[in-house]
Design brief:
mainly alpha, two-stranded antiparallel sheet, 14 helices, 2 strands
Length: 306
Amino acid sequence: MPFWVVATVFAAFMQNLRFLLQRHLKVTSLSTGGATWARFVFATPLVALALVVYKSISGQDWPMPQAGAGYWGYAVTGALAQMLATACVVALFARRHFYVGITLKKSEVILTALIGLVVLGEAVSPPVLVAIAIGFVGVLVLSDPPQEDGLPWTARIFNAASGYGLASGLLFGVSAVCYRGATLALDGGDAPLRAATALLTATLVQSLSLGLWLALREPGEIGRVITSWRISSLTGLTSMLGSLGWFTAFALQTAAYVKALGQIELVFTFLFSAFWLREQTSRGEIIGIALIIVSLTLVLWAGLSG
């Protein structure tokens, strides 16, 4: 089995755990910004430690991989896009069921394929175009809240939940393509080492920029994040492990293929939602999820057979 497949499945599972922890932080103690920052600030030292340990045990020579043309542009853009995308998902958790929110976020797979074509020249096949149409219908169905059936169609479709979901999908698509670009722009070292180097750059940018924002705009929130360290540190740990998986996969395979396979996260999310959170779903939500899964399956099939 290709290593990028193993890395992607592992990353999807850890990402699911991380979103679950962030959801807990959001609905119990922290703001959207605080729950987002908790992920990055606790992950940064863990990434640095993992980078040093892996380089030592793998026997690779110093110095670290060198940044080639475009590295900083890719890394910083990806970091900021991922930070904003995470904030959108955390905000979405307060509005819709957990697995519905994650499914709306999964528009990132379709968008990643399109962004990858534009930015990195990674072509998409006709089945992917069909997947885009099916996925769009699925997102429309999912964004129609069943508890608001008395509202006009436009108000039920174009709402904050669908906006957060689609925005997060677009931003995660940008970050995925930029992170692949960053790993390809590093010279020296194997794929995991280049992945960890790019990840450390990204988490440093995210921790510093969002930390400054919280200090200026949400006084006291940094203290609340630190106070919630028991959950926040677990959020950082799962974030670090998941991100190392994603970055390693991006270093080995195109972003569209990685994100397509990453849809196994939907299975993990549904199990958490049904058996842990005890959430109920409507028929419309199930139809929407089914359409999106069909869409993402087409993307995966096109990627693996291409």
